[in-house]
Amino acid sequence: MNAVDAGATKCDIELTPQILSIRDNGKGFKSKEEIEQFFEVFGQPHDDMEDKTFGQFRMGRGQLFAYGRNTWRTGKFAMSVDIDKDGLDYHMEEGLSHEDGCHIHVELYTPLTHTAHAEMLDQLEQNCRYVSLVLNVNGRQINKVPTTQKWEIESAEASIRFRQNGYLVVYNQGIKVCEFPRHRLGCGGEVVTKQNLKVNFARNDIMSDCPVWAKIQQAILGQTNAQQTRPFAALPAPTTGTVRERRPRAPATTEADRVRLCGQAKDKQLTPSQLASAKLFLPLCSHTNISLTMLHNRCDGKFTVAPEQASYNEHERGRSMVQHKLAFPLAHANLRRWGLTDGCDFISALKVAGSYYTLDYIPWGDMVARVDERKLIVQEKDMTRVEAIVLATIRKHAANLCYRLRRSGGTVMLPRTIQLGDSKSGDSWTDGKKVIVINRNVANSCGCGPFAWINYGLLILHEMAHQTSTLKDHGHTPEFYRAFHDCTTQNHGRSLSWFASRCAADCPQIAERIDRRMSRTELAMVDHQEACTARVTAVVGAEATAAVPPPPPESTRQ
Questions:
Q1: How many Å apart are CA 243 and CA 225, to the nearest integer?
Q2: Across the strands, what pairs with 140?
Q3: Digit-coded pLDDT (tens) for 65-103
Q4: Is residue 97 in some structural domain?
């Protein structure tokens, strides 16, 4: 907010667990007198001539002082504040090289945990979503320009977007102030004000006597009341701003409606266009019905019908069918909806209905056999967040694991490229020379927990011990068992322990680098592992120190 008040057009924030850096291109402090007047004194009243957007109290910098050792650079001056050491006294240096705008460097008193660091980044993105300048956090722009967004109400006071459910979030000229539950104003959504709101000292609530908010609230209530009393009528324009006319929402289609439409289709009462656009087909892996056009385009017209009581494994097979465009799986409920007994009957029913789409039905058993025998490489663009993090982390340390092992059982352990694959048989496989593939189901089930990396390491060593392809049926020779035993027990298994510890420690940074952030639970597990490792190291170090015998007396040494 200080950057906006200083006329900045860009603000760069760098946040690590140890350091906070804020840099803007605003006007900064121009003279020593300004520093003594506005930096040294808290609560200095604002002059109306200053034309501040947010500034009201001149207390914001005190919040930064509480977090760590502050160094402020602006113009040819530098101000240092360390409240743990010097209280609120500050040290000023003059005659330095010129610094455009203002640069604040904070060395945090208490380093952030991985969880707290991720939460801080999320809060920055949520609280500054619509700020007017370009805001970059760790090299990534996190804010949106309000003028590029679509709004349902545009008035002199605010831009407003509605949602049927959820909270109504209020942004004071781009900075989040508060959020109201749906029952307060009858809707959810977002409000970005164009004029400054009158807020409390903590800037987390709107004062009851704010005139700007009174006008915004009137416009919101006018919209929501009109929807509740006349949901399909044209809405009157509010006293301030304009309201874009909203299309009346069509009533929801029920299962009874779909059964009726299917009967009409078989009786040739629907036109081909109506038959193609009506959403009459329920996918196996989704609760959202699709149209005949969508069914035809998903997998080139090929489809299958799942059994009536589809298990979790059958749902997984259905997802694999869609991903690799083998066939589109429909739920068994479609047969009851259409009054059919088998998937083959769909072909004749659609032909009678006059469909201009030709579909190809494949029995479920045949599709299951195709899926189970396929071992496919998963492309990075198709990976989930967890899969991408696991693959990137393993790739960083797998080669070093091989180099640490050197030789095992007379076989040179050369590095191989690590990939993720999709298969219903086997947790991993290899071509015996260049590639090791880990099943994506293993990555999704194990995740990024501290013990998962041991499992990944064992899979890699298992495939390393294979010198021939394991893509199809294969056995385990005595040479394999000897190589696997040697590489897992060599040096008391320290190579595998090193691999697991390095993967667990580097996983949060790698996730941030590939822009696939870890979940709170995963970060908490990493924090717990690091804390346990620190305690074990401290105990081992203390025992080693106690085990060292005291030096002999001086007389004995002579």
A1: 14
A2: 137
A3: 888 999 989 989 998 999 888 887 888 898 899 888 999
A4: yes
What does DSSP say about strands 188-193 and 158-163: parallel, antiparallel, or unpaired? antiparallel
In whole angstroms, give the CA distance from residue 158 to residue 22. Answer: 29
The whole-angstrom separation of Cα 108 and Cα 67 is 6
550 inside domain:
no
In a domain, 214, yes or no: yes
Q: How many CB atoms lie within 10 A of CB 36?
A: 12
Same domain, 343 and 282: yes
Q: Give burial (CB, 10 Å; 0-12/13-18/19+) of 64.
A: middle
Helix/strand/coil for 99: strand
| Bridge partners, residue 417, by sequence | 435
10 with 135, same domain: the answer is yes
Question: Which amino acid does the sequence have at 276?
Answer: A
Whether residues 529 and 387 share a domain: the answer is: yes
List Cβ neighbours of 76 (8 Å cut-off, separation of 6 or more): 94, 95, 96, 97, 98, 99
- The amino acid sitting at 83 is I
Closest by Cα among 295, 293, 264, 272 to 282: 295
Question: Which among 141, 159, 189 is the end of a domain?
Answer: 141
Q: Is the pLDDT of residue 57 over 60?
A: no
Shared domain check, 152 and 104: no
Q: Select from 177, 180, 179 the least CA-distant residue to 202.
A: 177
Is 42 in the same domain as 121?
Answer: yes
The token pair at 16 is 């690590």
pTM of the predicted model over 0.85: no
The DSSP secondary structure of 238-262, one letter per residue, reads PSSSEEPPPPPPPPPPPHHHHHHHH
| CATH number of the domain encompassing residue 45 | 3.30.565.10
Residue 243 lies in a domain: no
Instruction: State which of 336, 357, 373 marks the end of a domain.
Output: 373
∠ Cα 131 132 135 (to 5°): 65
pLDDT tens track for 323-347: 778 899 999 999 999 999 888 888 9
- Report CA 556 to chain centroid distance, whole Å: 67
Amino acid of residue 391: L
Q: Find out whether 92 and 131 touch, Cβ atoms under 8 Å.
A: no
Q: Please give the residue range of the domain that contains residue 90.
A: 2-141
Burial class of 424 by CB neighbour count within 10 A (0 to 12, 13 to 18, 19+): middle
CB atoms within 10 A of CB 527: 15
Neighbours of 501 (CB within 10 A): 17
Q: Are residues 385 and 507 in the same domain?
A: yes
